[in-house]
Amino acid sequence: MARTDLAHRNQPVSGATCNRLMATLRRARTLAVDKLGIELPRLSFPHFAEEPAGRYVSPEEFQAILKHIAQPTKRAFVELLYLLGIRPGQLKKTEISNVRIENKKPVALVYRPSQVKQRTLHEVPLVGRAQDVVHELWRNRALGSGLLFHINGKPLRELKSEWRRACEAAGLTAGRKGGGVVLHNLRHSCLTNLAEAGVPDTTARAISGHKTDSAHRRYVITQNSTKAAALERMTEAIQRARNA
Question: Which residues of the chain have pLDDT under 50?
């Protein structure tokens, strides 16, 4: 049996994990005081720095990877991860009933609270390329399967081997070791692309399904080009003020 206790981890516990544990302790203390009437001293719980999670995959890198995934359903799944930023596990289990159809075209993916990690209704509109991809999946839906992503009526399995081959064919390293690319990085990259497009955080969270701002911030990887552009705009504003 694999050991999962923190004392036997092979790498340091992240700040995000520590903060989740602190949040659990805070809730436990609140319940003990409010529900059980236990008198406890006032406690302060530390907050640890949370580093941005994952590796950013640029649009150019993504297209290079995507063209080496030949199987249509797997290709569609990977493309929608990058375009919509939905959790991979949630997206893979998308059912036909989750697709909202209007005028014979899919207009949104609507997930019931029981299908979402945060247990809240999650609705993602479909536009542009994402709408085209879902439309093709809808047209090829298998009667009796109930799943949007299927291969000959069977559920989509793990894509680790296909992902590794596609990344290597694109000249990229796959896997977490050595800073390689993993499938979950596509979710990080979608949120980063939304941020660089100027999409407000609240809107981006509604698309990706993140419940809290702190969790969303960990997924956004600010690019140096974005920082440089921001500094250039600031410098230009200061220069205009000096010349006025």
Answer: 1-4, 6-8, 216
